[in-house]
Specification:
The chain is α+β, with helices and mostly antiparallel strands. The chain contains seven helices and four strands; from the N terminus they run H-E-H-E-H-H-E-H-E-H-H. Strands 1-2-4-3 form a four-stranded antiparallel sheet.
Length: 189
């Protein structure tokens, strides 16, 4: 499954079956949770009506003309990964955590949201689907369109569907993946 995961920027026709969607969403919620805060929520948008509302808010029609990945707009499932900093600050102010919520050294709300996004991608690969994690744009419009509470911030969106022929991102063609001999430091740096 891990080796099959890659960023897919073009999707073909075909829905993701509801039982598969449920498995993907359950997988996204199985990640580690700092302090067992569980401050990550998922907004699942399925089908042309819901995903169309997403794109109308995040990438209005007037801005689509030069969009380099038009096949992305065909993804039948979009999952917005949201985190609540407030939930983590409250949790880490509780007695069993014994530290001030202002003393958090790592923004765990982002870390846990990243785990959720990666688990969604791995579950998609495991189901034979393609997935792409990308920055969520148009946050104020998305909040209004989908009633996202102010306590939650979109960390990113995962597009999921059946992969279509695609071209690699220029980031991939211009760079190579570093190997363990460059990126793993054993015993010391």
């Amino acid at each position: 499954m891990l080796r099959k995961r890659r960023m897919v920027r073009s999707f073909g026709d075909g829905d993701v079956a509801p039982p598969v969607v449920e498995r993907l969403l359950a997988a996204g919620l199985r990640g580690p949770s700092a302090g067992f805060t569980q401050g990550v929520d998922l907004l699942a948008l399925q089908g042309p009506e819901e995903t169309g509302r997403y794109w109308d808010a995040a990438l209005p029609a007037g801005k689509r003309a030069g969009f380099p990945w038009p096949g992305l707009l065909r993804a039948p499932l979009l999952v917005v990964v949201l985190s609540s900093e407030e939930a983590y600050r409250r949790r880490y102010a509780e007695a069993d955590k014994a530290r001030s919520s202002s003393a958090l050294g790592v923004p765990w709300w982002h870390v846990d949201a990243a785990f959720a996004a990666l688990l969604l991608q791995l579950a998609a690969a495991d189901a034979g689907l393609g997935a792409l994690f990308f920055e969520t744009h148009g946050v104020p419009a998305l909040r209004a369109a989908f009633g996202i509470p102010s306590a939650f911030s979109p960390v990113g969106t995962v597009a999921i569907g059946h992969p279509a022929p695609d071209r690699p991102s220029s980031s991939v063609t211009a760079r190579r993946r570093r190997g363990p001999e460059e990126a793993v430091h054993r015993g010391r740096w």
